[in-house]
Amino acid sequence: MSSDIDFIREWLNVTTQGPEQKFVSFITDDVLMRFPYIPAGMGGDINGVEHATTVFREVWKGFPTFEWHDVVIKKIEGEDYYVSTGRSTATRPSGAAYANDYILLTR
Questions:
Q1: What is the pLDDT of residues 57-102, one digit of tens each?
Q2: Could you tell me if 71 and 12 are in contact, meaning their C-beta atoms sit under 8 angstroms apart?
Q3: What is the spatial distance between Cα 50 and Cα 55, in angstroms, rounded to a whole number?
Q4: Residues 6+ apart with CB under 8 A from 63
Q5: Among 17, 56, 67, 87, which one is most buried in terms of CB atoms within 10 A?
Q6: Which residues make Cβ contacts (< 8 Å) with residue 92, sequence separation at least 6?
Q7: How many CB atoms are closer than 10 A to CB 104?
Q8: Are 29 and 47 spatial neighbours (Cβ–Cβ below 8 Å)?
């Protein structure tokens, strides 16, 4: 990757489509992901590689197609954080359309 922003952009693709091996190469053993609006039963906090991989295996099954649009990634000056915004269009296995807007904080 040529920059942190390039890394985050690729990370967005890997989290939505895999493959698992690449996903695992992007995270550390102590990864912590917080999703305050994640569906019940999946948990709001995802801790560690094994937990993250288990959750994202299900995510990948749930979206045969997934595309990011209008992604903007900005570094928070003086901090080791980035804010990303964007939207998605996707399809569910049933063929139903899915779309969402996102705001992500990444370190």
A1: 988 999 999 999 999 999 999 988 999 999 999 999 999 999 999 9
A2: yes
A3: 9
A4: 16, 17, 90, 91, 92, 98
A5: 56
A6: 62, 63, 64, 98
A7: 17
A8: no
Cα-based torsion angle of the residue sequence 54, 81, 5, 8 in order, rounded to the nearest 10 degrees: 10
As a whole number of angstroms, the longest Cα–Cα distance in the chain is 45
CA dihedral 40, 37, 13, 48 (to 10 degrees): -60
Contact between 102 and 94 under an 8 Å Cβ cutoff? The reply is no
**Residue partners of 81: CB distance under 8 A and separation at least 6:** 75, 105, 106, 107
3-state secondary structure of 53: helix
- Two tokens at 36? 């305050």
Asked if residues 53 and 47 have their Cβ atoms less than 8 Å apart, the reply is no
Strand partners, 87: 69, 101
pLDDT at 6 over 90: yes
